[in-house]
UniProtKB/TrEMBL annotation:
Keyword Transmembrane helix (UniProt): no
Keyword Nucleotide-binding applies: no
Name the UniProt record assigns to this protein: Sugar kinase
GO molecular function: kinase activity
Amino acid sequence: MSTYRDFTAPIGSRRATALRTVGTRERRSLLTAPRVPTVGIDIGGTKVMAGVVDADGNILEKVRTETPDKSKSPKVVEDTIAELVLDLSDRHDVHAVGIGAAGWVDADRNRVLFAPHLSWRNEPLRDRLSGRLSVPVLVDNDANTAAWAEWRFGAGRGEDHLVMITLGTGIGGAILEDGQVKRGKYGVAGEFGHMQVVPGGHRCPCGNRGCWEQYSSGNALVREARELAAADSPVAYGIIEHVKGNVSDITGPMITELAREGDAMCIELLQDIGQWLGVGIANLAAALDPSWLSVGRPGSRPPTTC
């Protein structure tokens, strides 16, 4: 049975304990336990999720915590990952850790070269965590890991040309051919969210302007709602009242919930997001001619497929 909970242990009191390696525990040899559970980590711009997964892709348990503020050092995020792995290892015999990072990962799947929504620049994430956890650690781009899971266990199982689009703080993507991730020369293929769709448009954390994710992502949705509320627009009165005038309290889930309740502005903002999403997907379909295209979020419910 799958369980889910937030990871809310006091950071100060747990960190000293968490920095002990998981390897201090007794565990069976990898050679004699080929189908043992592993921990999958999804590092996003706003949250870090971890789950214990068996060899058949079943999620046995999930925990979640907020992503440390991006102004903090990368080590703080590494500490958070170690804490989550240790917490899950208390209840499961974990033998490996796989990490999906929201950023550009090098072809050797060791370093996070650049993460627009985190303070990672050329960070040797695999080596650093391998030094703290005495189990094998694998690192890849989060969309690559989501695409492979969709091909291996999901609705796109066995498809020979699969394209994955992941929606969250930004937009990620991946391309699979016959079960193999197409990485490009430097390992950063599939960064669909940074295709330019509006020349000279909104500035993106990557440094460019007009990237697709600036018009069809969680960040874009929240930005538009906050701008309307800050301008005291008549169409934003509903959400202004909902947050009691605190514009910075507006979030993506809040906008979605108000849209479900019939708020006209929130409905229109989601329609705009959907229209821009369709523009990008149509371009990808024309360029890549996939047999299967999935849209989802890493670490979340099964994706939509086309």
